[in-house]
Amino acid sequence: MAASTGGELRRRLGGPAGDAPHRPQEPRAPPAPSLRPGSFWLTRLVLLRATAFIYLVAFLVAYHQNKALIGDRGLLPCKLYLENVKRHFKGRINMETLSYAPTLIWFLDWSSMDSILDAFALIGLAISAFVLVTGCANMILMAAVWMIYLSLINVGQIW
């Protein structure tokens, strides 16, 4: 490598050369963020928002149809279904019961099933709308949406 004179080096770096008049350097704009390979930011954004959109539609449908289908006065009331499952497992709610019909409704009061179903649908709707609009999601939010939806579909029975 050939040695450079001080003037050449300063000229290449943008500084004043030895005999050139000194001029103040202009402030440089910060470099634009580069898209590094392997960051997958676009894939994450699309996948999370698409999943949130699907959940949003599912919870919106559940909110409008749950009372008529599985509510207190629905076609196949989920309260009756859960009582039959509980009776099958000798009146106990244990791991076998939870694995047969995994739902959070086991741990709630069943006196007003319509309000429980509406609350689950609205909570899921709110979480999925938040993820869809902001694009912010973490494991807790996505697990909560999954558990709420799982709770609703497992009391829906077979149509």
From TrEMBL:
Residues 1-33 are annotated as: Disordered. It comes from the Eukaryota. The keyword Isomerase does not apply. The chain crosses the membrane at residues 41-63, 120-149. GO terms for cellular component: endoplasmic reticulum membrane. One of its GO terms (biological process) is protein maturation. Keywords: Membrane, Transmembrane, Transmembrane helix. InterPro entries: LMF. This is Lipase maturation factor 1-like. It comes from Notechis scutatus (mainland tiger snake). The lineage of its organism: Eukaryota, Metazoa, Chordata, Craniata, Vertebrata. The gene is LOC113424206.
